[in-house]
């Protein structure tokens, strides 16, 4: 809902529980008024009438109060917009007009020939903000154009939550007290990165998992980015975020050209961290994730089982075992194309390896389909190995600096996707691939960061950082439009490209290359702060864990860990015993029963993974699912009962496992035993409201 007051200079956006307000002063300064619980227009107008702080030399009257601080004038905060026109620094803008279309508010400003529009849209309780620049004058160099600056109310003792990590250890949740100065997170790597999800949360007055005010911001961008949380000298907090890590230049806008930033979304919740997560999840399921109402199938992926050593017969045998287990989607990972027998060759040559698949992928795909499963493949289109036909033909198609070394990671180089010829090549190859065999699923990988981001011959080469991502998005969008039945997974060496931007055009994401079921609990805990189980792929792999740590764990523990997201199996089924295969079949069957509740329900994190008992709970209509894990039991003490959340206290709930009937109030206040013992135990508990 959008209300307008103050003679068309105060705007109030409201969702079910929250409001966001801003207004223009008489001299066209755009001030932030409110972000928090729902208020009325009269309240916003009172806030708009408050005077600016008194003038003091050495201080800005605007810092910390402005909705989108541009560079120049009496401001000392980090500018959200920094441009150069004819060598002149900064922006002096005047308000032109506002427009409302389909619940989207647009505030138009102009500085000479440069039009700057701030966009606002409320979806549930999430405020989406973005900016467009349209140039009608002399060329403008855009050093930085953040998507938004968020202003928090003046309070004491803010705390910052973020999820940080690295390869195989993504999404580790940390909370630290905020202090004066700036805390900056981001990626200067060309992709979202394993190091941080582009999300922060801020709370004050000691929010807990289910209580207290929490503010969150998430950026919808899959390239280089920066989010800066600044506590200003007067203790006000602002969060500014957008494309680019440094301010060294994003692009140049000639007359007639325009540019749109990605969305930087903000959410206020007074339901604690859990309430904030549920609101983010509901928003993504409703507005971001394609076909979120459809449950994702159980997948098998051969990567950990076979790595590069694949053959058609071996894949067929794995498919037979996977189908017998109840798997619904069989994915052939790396190694099916070009000369890809190791990571040293083949990337770029997207045709089936004739030694391995003499008749192409079609026969295997058809056999997989005949087994009742969908068929999927792995690709990494943005990359090329030096040892490939593509690179031999087009050594200038990669990002490089003339006369400098071409840095390789995993023996590969990054294609310059900003080039139209590269875009066309990839479109043609991928379109042919999807047309040539019955392919239902594409795992799209990205296995190295940008290093030598040069573009010889291009007058403004650094634009490739932005244009690469736009080209990646366009390619995905075009493939999705041409092949509407194909689902896509975003992978980047595990969780290196997870954000609201890629999520708008993929069906699920690969959470981490770390499939250890214990490590995964912590990774999933961090991931769930912002993204829903509906996109969080998780595989059951072998024990001892072959990839990372040789940890031994039961099939039960591995399955229950992976059942907290989109279940997959990634073990070497050729080595699983008949008993293991039979047990796995039962787990897959159980997952299919609970998956709509897991994938579409409300998530309650009952206990974080911190060494002992941890648990999550999902609620969808009358159905409740609890997944509980015990890492280690100590001193023979019985494990604490699990206090459930989000139930109706006066209703009764029947436990499908035990047949017992419980009262909602008792389950929430006193809890129920999960019945776990020893080390690495786990349980699934299903309850139904009666
Ligand atoms: C990345 C992915 C893995 C696998 C390999 C294949 O590391 O995260 O799941 O697909 O590439 O090379």
Describe, in short, the structure shown.
By secondary structure, the protein is an alpha+beta fold.
Q: What CATH architecture of the largest domain would you give? A: Alpha-Beta Barrel
Number of helices: 13
Gyration radius, in Å = 26 Å
| Average residue pLDDT | 97
Number of domains: 3
Structural class, by secondary structure, is: alpha+beta
Task: Give a description of the structure.
By secondary structure, the chain is an alpha+beta fold. The protein is 21% helix and 30% strand. Strands 7, 8, 9, 10, 13, 14, 16, 17, 21 and 22 form a ten-stranded antiparallel sheet that branches. Helix 7 packs parallel to helix 8 (464-482), helix 10 (517-527) runs parallel beside helix 11 and helix 11 (555-562) runs parallel beside helix 12 (578-600). Alpha-D-galactopyranose binds at residues 303, 333-334, 378, 445, 447, 491, 493-494, 510, 513. GO terms for molecular function: alpha-galactosidase activity.
Give the topology, please.
Layout: E1 2-5, E2 10-14, E3 18-24, E4 30-37, H1 41-48, E5 81-85, E6 88-89, E7 94-101, E8 104-111, E9 114-123, E10 126-135, E11 140-145, E12 148-151, E13 159-164, E14 172-177, E15 181-187, E16 199-203, E17 214-219, E18 225-231, E19 237-243, E20 251-253, E21 258-260, E22 264-269, H2 272-288, E23 299-301, H3 303-306, H4 312-325, E24 329-332, H5 362-370, E25 374-379, E26 383-385, H6 389-393, E27 412-414, H7 420-436, E28 441-444, H8 464-482, E29 487-490, H9 500-503, E30 508-510, H10 517-527, E31 536-540, H11 555-562, E32 566-569, H12 578-600, E33 602-607, E34 613-620, E35 623-630, E36 652-655, E37 661-663, H13 664-669, E38 681-689
Parallel strand pairs: 23-24, 23-32, 24-25, 25-28, 28-29, 29-30, 30-31, 31-32
Antiparallel strand pairs: 1-2, 2-3, 3-4, 5-6, 5-11, 7-8, 8-9, 9-10, 10-21, 10-22, 11-20, 12-19, 13-14, 13-16, 15-18, 16-17, 17-22, 18-19, 26-27, 33-34, 34-35, 35-38, 36-37, 36-38
Bound molecules: alpha-D-galactopyranose.
Residues 303, 333-334, 378, 445, 447, 491, 493-494, 510, 513 line the site of alpha-D-galactopyranose (GLA).
């Amino acid at each position: 809902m959008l209300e307008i007051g103050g003679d068309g200079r105060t705007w109030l956006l409201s969702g079910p529980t929250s409001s966001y307000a801003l207004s223009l002063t008489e001299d066209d300064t755009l001030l932030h008024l409110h972000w928090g619980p729902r208020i009325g227009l009269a309240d916003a107008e009172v806030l708009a009438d408050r005077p600016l702080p008194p003038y003091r030399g050495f201080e800005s009257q605007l810092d910390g109060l402005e909705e989108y601080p541009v560079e120049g004038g009496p401001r000392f905060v980090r500018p959200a917009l920094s441009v150069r026109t004819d060598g002149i620094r900064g922006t002096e803008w005047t308000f032109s007009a506002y427009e409302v279309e389909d619940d989207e508010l647009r505030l138009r400003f102009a500085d000479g020939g440069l039009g700057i529009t701030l966009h606002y849209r409320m979806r549930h309780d999430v405020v989406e903000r973005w900016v467009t620049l349209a140039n009608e004058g002399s060329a403008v160099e855009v050093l930085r154009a953040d998507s938004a600056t968020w202003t928090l109310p003046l309070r004491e003792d803010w705390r910052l939550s973020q999820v940080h990590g690295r390869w195989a250890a993504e999404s580790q949740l940390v909370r630290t007290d905020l202090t004066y100065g700036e805390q900056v997170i981001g990626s200067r790597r060309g992709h979202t990165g394993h190091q941080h999800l582009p999300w922060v949360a801020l709370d004050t007055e000691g929010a807990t998992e289910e209580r207290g005010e929490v503010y969150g911001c998430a950026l919808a961008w899959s390239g280089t980015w920066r989010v800066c949380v600044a506590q200003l000298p007067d203790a006000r907090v602002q969060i500014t975020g957008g494309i680019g890590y440094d301010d060294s230049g994003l692009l140049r806008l000639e007359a007639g050209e325009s540019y749109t930033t990605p969305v930087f979304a903000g959410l206020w919740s007074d339901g604690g961290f859990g309430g904030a997560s549920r609101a983010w999840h509901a928003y993504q399921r409703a507005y971001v994730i394609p076909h979120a109402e459809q449950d994702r199938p159980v997948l098998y992926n051969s990567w950990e089982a076979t790595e590069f050593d694949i053959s058609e017969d071996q894949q067929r045998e794995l498919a037979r075992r996977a189908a017998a287990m109840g798997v619904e989607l069989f994915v052939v990972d790396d190694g099916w194309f070009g000369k890809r027998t190791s990571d040293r060759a083949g990337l770029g040559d997207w045709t089936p390896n004739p030694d391995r698949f003499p008749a192409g992928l079609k026969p295997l795909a058809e056999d997989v389909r005949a087994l009742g499963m969908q068929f999927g493949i792995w690709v990494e289109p943005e990359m090329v190995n030096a040892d490939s036909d593509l690179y031999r033909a087009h050594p200038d198609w990669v990002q490089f600096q003339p006369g400098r070394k071409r840095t390789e990671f995993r023996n590969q180089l990054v294609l310059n996707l900003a080039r139209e010829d590269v875009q066309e090549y990839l479109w043609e190859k991928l379109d042919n691939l999807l047309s040539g065999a019955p392919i239902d699923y594409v795992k799209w990988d990205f296995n190295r960061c940008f290093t030598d981001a040069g573009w010889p011959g291009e007058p403004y080469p650094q634009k490739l950082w932005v244009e690469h991502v736009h080209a990646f998005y366009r390619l995905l969008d075009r493939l999705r439009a041409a092949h509407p039945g194909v689902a896509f997974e975003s992978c980047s060496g595990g969780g290196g490209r997870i954000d609201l931007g890629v999520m708008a055009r993929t069906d699920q994401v690969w959470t981490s290359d770390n499939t250890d079921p214990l490590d995964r609990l912590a990774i999933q805990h961090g991931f769930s702060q912002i993204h829903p189980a509906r996109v969080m792929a998780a595989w059951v792999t072998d024990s001892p864990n072959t990839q990372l740590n040789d940890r031994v764990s039961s099939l039960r523990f591995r399955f229950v860990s992976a059942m907290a997201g989109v279940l997959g199996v990634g073990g070497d089924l050729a080595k699983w015993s008949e008993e293991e295969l039979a047990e796995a079949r039962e787990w897959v069957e159980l997952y299919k029963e609970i998956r709509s509740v897991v994938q579409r329900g409300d998530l309650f994190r009952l206990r974080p993974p911190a060494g002992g008992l941890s648990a999550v709970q999902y609620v969808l209509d009358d159905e409740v699912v609890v997944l509980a894990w015990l890492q280690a039991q100590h001193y023979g003490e019985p494990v604490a009962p699990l206090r459930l959340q989000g139930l109706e206290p006066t209703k009764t709930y029947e436990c499908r496992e035990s047949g017992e009937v419980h009262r909602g109030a008792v389950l929430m206040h006193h809890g129920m035993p999960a019945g776990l013992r020893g080390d690495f135990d786990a349980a699934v508990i299903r309850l139904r409201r009666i």
